[in-house]
Design a protein that fits this description.
33% helix; 16 strands; three-stranded antiparallel sheet; globular; alpha/beta; seven-stranded parallel sheet
């Protein structure tokens, strides 16, 4: 198949392009080289490249010629700098997706693989001993400042047990980035309904691996820790370091995209968690990376970021059953490779 990968020059997009080519597909890339992801210009690309913003309607229409499937990776990610980023997040992520979907409809292209994110859930799953499955309220600034990081039951205030979240859980975005990813999913679902199309939304959990952007406001936590260790500094772990996450290697994420692009798929919208299925705390990940790099042990700071959630880990059952996807790279193995892998400038 001929597959257009938007954001194909980026961290995840580059790995997706290589995996698609290895699987025998013809790859075309559309990428604007946004400065949030590219501090330096990309001088070469192994695939036909359209250097354009996904909001550029004529460029997008041209890039779609002869395309069978679109893998939509292009997006601003992370929490960003502050709320001044809000218009650019909405423009890149939501307007860009709307332009792409309209152009696909005009070309008669009916299959989309959408890079979504775990952030659409907000907090992960929780169970109260008395009230069973509950959704805690956003953590207050006063609680975070006082070091009360664990959310309580919204009905009785008792401590909660974190549990894995599945794809049928409610969407409750708690950051600008999260809100734009929910909007992307809703736009894609409406598009699929309108043209009898097919959308596979891959909700990535904490992706890490070779080619991550270096320490920027848009970087993932693994790259931030890696940059500190390279500079001889201890990784600074926010809150108490016990935040539960699921870290998934970028090679596994790329393979999930290949499976999604190649599957027959049913019409309509279907979401999948792309995760390892293994729970790790942020502090434990920082300690494992520090050990792999023979660097200083992490320092738990007690600091926090507005918009961060406490725990979010995934059930991988649906992706395994319907896409045939199971993560292959364990965290220790992945971090050993990541410790010396090249990062993006």
């Amino acid at each position: 198949m001929r597959i257009l990968v938007t954001g194909g020059l980026g961290f995840v997009g580059g790995h997706v392009c290589a995996a698609l080519e290895t699987a025998g597909h013809e790859v075309v890339v559309l990428d604007a080289e946004h400065p949030a992801a590219h501090r330096e210009p990309v001088t070469s690309c192994a695939y036909p490249l359209v250097r354009a913003d996904v909001r550029d309607r004529p460029a997008v229409a041209g890039a779609l010629r002869g395309v069978d499937v679109v893998v939509h990776q292009a997006a601003l990610v992370g929490l960003g700098v502050d709320l001044a980023d809000l218009p650019e997040y909405v423009g890149c992520n939501d307007l860009g997706t709307a332009v792409l979907l309209a152009a696909m409809a005009a070309r008669g292209i009916r299959r989309l693989v959408l890079a979504s994110s775990m952030v659409v859930y907000g907090e992960g799953g929780y169970r109260c001993p008395e009230h069973q499955r509950v959704r805690p309220a956003p953590r207050s600034h006063d609680d975070l400042t006082s070091g009360r990081f664990e959310p309580g039951c919204p009905r009785c205030g008792r401590p909660l047990e974190p549990v894995d979240i599945d794809e049928d859980s409610p969407l409750e975005p708690r950051s600008v980035y999260a809100a734009t990813k929910v909007a992307q999913e809703h736009l894609a679902a409406a598009w699929a309904n309108g043209i009898d199309g097919s959308v596979v939304a891959l909700r990535y959990h904490n992706v890490y691996g070779p080619g991550m952007p270096r320490d920027t406001p848009y970087s993932g936590v693994a790259a931030i820790f890696r940059s500190a260790l390279e500079a001889g500094r201890a990784p600074a772990v926010f809150e108490d370091g016990r935040q539960r996450r699921d870290f998934v290697h970028v090679s596994d994420v790329a393979r999930a995209n290949v499976l999604a692009a190649g599957s027959a798929g049913s019409r309509g919208f279907r979401a999948y968690n792309v995760a390892s299925g293994r729970v790790t705390s942020v502090g434990a990940m920082a300690a494992a990376l520090a050990q792999a790099m023979a660097g200083p042990a992490p320092v738990v700071t007690g600091n926090f970021r507005a918009g961060d959630v406490r725990h979010v880990t995934a059930s991988p059952v649906r992706a395994r059953a319907e896409l045939g996807f199971t993560a292959a790279v364990g965290l220790e193995e992945g971090l050993r490779g990541f410790a010396t892998a090249p990062l993006r400038a």
